[in-house]
Fold this sequence. Notes:
By secondary structure, the protein is of the alpha+beta class. It contains 25 helices and 16 strands. Strands 7-10-6-1-14 form a five-stranded antiparallel beta sheet. Strands 2-13-15-16 form a four-stranded antiparallel beta sheet, covered by helices on one side. The longest helix is centred in the last third of the chain and has 35 residues, at 640-674. The protein is globular. It starts with 8 loop residues before the first helix and ends with a helix.
Amino acid sequence: xxxxxxxxxVLNYIMKWLIFTLMVSGxxxxxxxxxxxxxxxxxxxxxxxxxxxxLSIYFSSRLALITLTSATAVxxxxxxxxxxxKGRLDEILSLFKWLMDYTLGMASFEAQHVFPSTWFIVxxxxxxxxxxxxxxxxxxxxxxxxxxxxxxxxxxxxxxILPWLWPVLLGWLMMLGAKQYRRLSRHYSMPDFGVxxxxxxPLAIAIILTSSILLPDDTRxxxxxxLEQTVEKISDRxxxxxxxxxxxxxxxxxxxxxxxxxxxxxxxxxxxGDVALRVIATAPLYLRGxxxxxxxxxxWQNSIEDKRYKLGSISWENEYSQxxxxxxxxxxxxxxxxxxxxxxxxxxxxxxTGIETSVIFNAQRLEGITIQKSWGGFTPYFNGxxxxxxxxxxxxxxxxxxxxxxxxxxxxxxxxxxxSYTPIIDWHKPISQQSLWEGANREKLLYIQEHYTEVPDTxxxxxxxxxxxxTRGIESPLAKALALQAYLQQNYGYTLQxxxxxxxxxxxxxxxxxxxxxxxxxxxxxxxVMGRIVGLPTRYIEGxxxxxxxxxxxxxxVKKLNGHAWVEIYFPKVGWLTFDPTPQSxxxxxxxxxxxxxxxxxxxxxxxxxxxxxxxxxxYQSDLNSEIASPIDSSSTGKTPWVLLVxxxxxxxxGAGMAGLRIWDMLRWRKIKKLPFKQxxxxxxxxxxxxxTLYGFPMRKGETPYSYAQRVDAWLTNPAGSMxxxxxxxxxNQFGNYQLTExxxxxxxxxxxxxxxxxxxxxxxxxxxFKLISKELSSKILRRHNL
Length: 787
């Protein structure tokens, strides 16, 4: 038979305060440490205590909650309306915006916002923790909340938060004791709740002290290797098995109709207009599929015994840096301004539509790959050469985002920099016998010398003589590369229907001295082999060369006829750089008119980076969101409705918020169209300039609207018209009192709409909408400030 336990309200209140304070203060301090906010712990304790007293009064009864909440709302409204200092509301909105941007890494640190932001963080955590732990004693939900916050912080690398997790754990242990107390008090006579908590406190403290002693002082590299590896293996196996189709298939140009094998290159091309890839990108790219190192006399093959590394794993950071040239000294020696000019940040979303391969096409310099599928997707890997791939063929429903910084090799300033910056190495002599610059990675240089400098002994002497004759009197590695590239482009013709190479004849020799015309594999192979002869480390690349113009907006249809081969040459302290010796359209007189008419402006188009010479193209980051569903603890009896409520409420709120953003976007467009034409024009032009800034193409200081429009039209394709058309209408309307016609206004709206829809497709609707709301909020605050 159950008996009532004794009751001491004051002691109970104090012990609940202790549980609440330990959990909220620990979580708050860990978040502040992660945000690099220097707020003393005692100040946090005072804030938490203040909120505990206030919340306990508010939630003392239902009547008190309704009455006090209503009174607070009315009081705050009166204060803001009649007594607040002018601009205070704007300051509050500005604070919220800064905190959101700073947390996302989009704003710099501002010391004046630290304490107000701390109050806000303490309030949110206090409210949630009070409801979960003090009011409803939902141990499972509060545990998930705490574990989620801590896991996110730890995963982001904030391992210095460990000392502030002990108060959270101590509060959780005391809450666990309170849960046990409630269960036992139903059946037995128990001491006062406060006494029970005091008696369990030494045990909880002993557990915390023991744990802190067992853990090392330095937790910066603290990992549970077995657990981490097990989780990674399970995740990888799930990704690979859940949508497994066929065994892994590498990429060769033969899949696109261009003859390619390790035994024999060349011969007629089977031209196909089938779409292989669909790419949404800010600029066209050379998409690398396969990197080959050994020339056999008739073709190319891979002779490097390589390992597979998981892309994005911290365990392989050194291997990743070396494979994609992030270990080169240029990254430390260049100023930020020159980095932005010499390496063009480009983002591209790639979808495989008509090609079966396990290859993840990439480009120089690869910063990372985002897989756009959370469950049932594939795991990206890389090898020491810089190839990326997965363990099975990539299906048409799967896509990935490339984040790359492409070297602007055609920029004269970059070429001049390389000429003066790159040391000259004699690759024909052992590396060990040469004096190198301080900090040189001898292991990498030996690897390159072993795999990328050899040519077969069977190379005819006239090939060697031609290579030396082309580069006679040239010392600079870059000048040699450019000389070889120019010679091939200017002295050999282009055809897609060459005869097959005769048996037992060297492929390069036959092309240079007998055939004298061919397509990409002929030109790339000739340059790679002659480059090695004159002392340049080269490698042969097969992949796709994206068309210079998109199919529509920023969507590129990469067809099989866009299959391409080119050369990469290694420059010490810089890394591998792309060279394409295949003649461009003006030199391809050998191309049959039949094929030119059937496939205009694709493979034989102009170079894919005509706009990067002398231009700076700043990158922008996409916000990629993933949803994680937490399992429901069905073992909690008597609390199921509350558990469901707490779990479902965030989902309902998130769904309502997403729907609300969609509705807000539609209403925004309706509001725009109801404005007078002059206001519509002004608004649309401002938004167009902002959207172009998101592209990474802002107006330069001192640049006129006309010159900016001309610069934009050099790369932007918009079905509604050109930027110059928009600019002329703006100038005529603003300065010439020109009255816009309905047709002209519709054209401007369509231009803005197309540009905005393209940005949405690149960033995603919700990340873009959040950026737009943030901009509108900033504009509103600025307008209020100017009043």
